[in-house]
Amino acid sequence: MVALLLVLLWWLQGLRRQTELALGPDAMRLQAQLLQGLQALDVRLQQLERSSQSTQMTVAKSDGALDRVTQHVQTQLAQAQQDALAARREQAAALASFREEVAQLAQRLTGDSQQARAALAQSSAEQSVHVQQRFEALAETTRGTLDSLKGDIQQQLTHMSTNMGAALKDQLGSNGEQLRHQFAVLQDAVSQQLAALAQGQQTTAEQLRATLNERLATIQSDNALKLDEMRRTVDEKLHATLEQRLGESFKLVSDRLEQVHKGLGEMQTLAGSVGDLKRVMTNVKSRGTWGELQLGSIIDNVLTPEQYARNVKTVPGSDELVEFAIRLPGRNDEHPVWLPIDAKYPVEHYQRLQDAQDSADRVAIVAAGNAFETSIRGEARKIASKYIAPPHTTDFAVMYLPTEGLFAEVLRRPGLVEALQNEHRIVVTGPANLAAMLSSLQMGFKTLAIEKRSSEVWGVLGQVKTEFGRFGEVVEATRKSIDAAARKFDQVGVRTRAIQRHLRNVQELPNGAGQEQPLFPVASPGGDQTASENDE
């Protein structure tokens, strides 16, 4: 290879001298560049040859690094091929550039002879072909050398692998006896450990079963005590709540009755002056307005605005309006039942009766009394025909007499009040009597409210009953879970015997470091979890 390079250099020097004579300074510069490229190529080829020689020596000396050397050789071969290809490309590029510059110089030297240019062109072409042939021969020689080197390396690798296989076979044969002996020792140790473990697990299971039974009995007794305590607490709270509500209701009734008695006393005190006022009031419209105002004042003092209404049309399809109507509970809240209350004040007939009594005229007293009864019956008939219409109203109405004297005179008439109630369904009331009746209605409303609240209490008791049922279900589920856990512990012995059957043929493994290893090495938490999952 070196001789070939020397011949190539000698030929290039001769070519350079001819080119210098023919082309001058420009050609010399191009030839210098071409020479530098060839010298660099020569240096690279020498480096590759030294690298190949060092690689062969390394392969011969180091058997343990065969893989690394093979990889390195392949890398060097690839790199050499790439370098040769790059050098070939550089030489071709240099020759192409050289041809272009030669053509340019030929154009500048148009004054030279045509024979010199033809000879120069022919010489350049022949030299280019000769250089190309030399480079191809050099590449072929390098490729053959690398192929032979690769074959030698593969033969050495095959021989070494054969030797190593035999050595490994002998080593494995010697280790087999040791493995069988160690497996036997390990099997005996594992059997002893499993027997001890089974005995300990059986004892632990018995203890755990006894402990669970004791705890279950304790939990049942505690639950029974807590249930009794909760039942007593609920009974006490309900009893206390009912007593408190009833006490408040009775207290309210007593207060209202005291107020009624107090009002009655005040009414009796004012009866005389009211009688004088009635004698003064002779205008019918004024008397009616005064009676309505008095009736409205009494109702406002006793009832709330939601419990009554003014100027109510009680009869559907009629234009008659009752002065006041008490709102009573109906089938639903949108359609209540009305209790009509109308104020009447027949003061003329009552005044004639008072005058006759003052004059002690027996005939006049009888005539005035009959006229008074007739007027009262007529007013009752009007109220019944105008305002009573069941089921929109009650089957009776209230006729309010604004003075206690007038009300007392009606009560003194034998059979008059009963006749009004039986014939016309009219209840006659005075100022004090109306307040008492309205107070009774108020107590009825409160009694209805108490009944509604009692229904809520019964609802709460129903919820408590439901919760007690759910609590019993939870206790039953807890008992079932404890029984299932006890059955799981009973299965531990079965699983232990199954493990013993699987490990009867297990032998002890060899210890590579020559040191004793624990029979059951401590594994990481993740490893324990994986083992338990595999057992399951």
Automatic annotation (TrEMBL):
InterPro entries named among the record's database cross-references: DNA_recombination_RmuC
Q: What ranges does the record give for the region Disordered, renumbered to this chain?
A: 510-536
Tell me which UniProt keywords the record has, alphabetically. Answer: Coiled coil, DNA recombination
Record SUPFAM superfamilies: Apolipoprotein A-I (SSF58113)
One of its GO biological process terms is: DNA recombination
Biased composition range(s): Polar residues: 527-536
**What Pfam families does the record point to?**
RmuC
Top-level taxon of origin? Bacteria
For this chain, the family text in UniProt reads:
Belongs to the RmuC family.
Q: What does this protein do?
A: Involved in DNA recombination.
Entry protein name: DNA recombination protein rmuC
The organism encoding this protein is Comamonas testosteroni (Pseudomonas testosteroni)
The record's gene field reads rmuC
